[in-house]
Amino acid sequence: GKKDHSTVMHACRKIGKEREQNDEFRRFLERLAYSIKNQGS
User: Fold this and answer.
1) So what's the pLDDT on residue 37?
2) What SS3 class is residue 32?
3) Along the 41 residues of the chain, how does pLDDT read in single tens digits?
4) CA proximity to 26, closest of 15, 18, 37
5) DSSP character for 11?
6) How many CB atoms neighbour CB 17 within 10 A?
């Protein structure tokens, strides 16, 4: 019914938001690893 659809949409938006935060976190870790690697050389 209508309620199921809105629940699915809500879940998709929630997952999408978490994915965005994970991407930001991954880029942060990549920059961190990159700077550490450059310091070592």
Assistant:
1) 92
2) helix
3) 677 889 999 999 999 999 999 999 999 999 999 999 998 76
4) 18
5) H
6) 10
Question: What burial class does residue 11 get, using C-beta atoms within 10 Å of its C-beta: 0-12 exposed, 13-18 middle, 19+ buried?
Answer: exposed
Give the DSSP per-residue string, 8-19.
HHHHHHHHHHHH
- Name the residue with tokens 């976190």: 25
Tokens (6 digits) for 3: 């309620």
Cα–chain center distance at 37 = 24
Q: Which two tokens stand for residue 6?
A: 């809105």
